[in-house]
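Input.
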Amino acid sequence: MARPLTTFNGFCGQQETVDSLRQHCRGALAQSVPLPHILFAGSSGIGKTKLATAVAKEMGVNCHCVCCSNDTKKALLAEKLAGLAKADILFLDEIHALVPDCQEMLFPAIDNLVAPKVDPDTKRLIVEEKVQIPPFTLIAASDQCGSLRNALKRRIVLTFTLGDYTLQEMRLIVGNCAAEHKILLKPQAATRIAEAARGLPRKVRHLMTSLSLCTRNPGAEITKPEAIRCLRLQGIDEDNLDKIDRRYLEYLADRRGHVSVQNIAMGLGLDQMTVKAEIEGYLVRRGLVGIDGRGRFLTGAGKELAAKRGWK
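Output.
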């Protein structure tokens, strides 16, 4: 399968967002100014990091990445800010995970281009001393934008919500990933992988890594039956459901009504955050599960699937 053309420095899909970003990049380059600050909103694995990297390539600047968590220290952010060159990008992934103090430290950096000084020996902030930083672009990424401080969101000029990918876009992503892994795919095999990826580019990379290891004839062109066999090794069935999806749906079918997320999590032996973040999103988008004030329930389509599978 030939390597397909990419749309934005290696990024495929999200055409409206890409078109807007390209125009903003061209304007910023023409005027020799940094891009305005940006927020990418979207589910985990949808391509926020890849898109930030594409923006940096378009601008010809460095992208300094921080994967944020509750443990991210102010000193780390201060060091990152101090290490920026003019128009560089500071990419804060999962920015919602920053504690309020860390989010607030970004305010003077955005407003006045200053950051606290860090003692090089102790790696502690010298609160009373500030360092000047060059004009830069903050690109924030989050799947929980409601957790961001309003004062921070007001300082971000451009907000893009990344939506669903079309099957054709997913096939392009599969083709690019196959080329990177030096895997030859029949068109029908590429389509099957694209369907199984659930609209998530990160999932494509995971599936292709598995495919490269599990194919029975390395170097040979992979057919659809071989792709299906490799997917089954990962527990992915013809409906693109994996083992935990099926357990979730069977649990709901067995209870025949609304079930709280707490009970589902206990029934599956998982924590609630995993159930919400890693299982329910896809099932809700597929129209198999509904959520309301009384809990989770199977939709009409979910009940049809449960009947087909022989679940109670």
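The mean pLDDT is 91.
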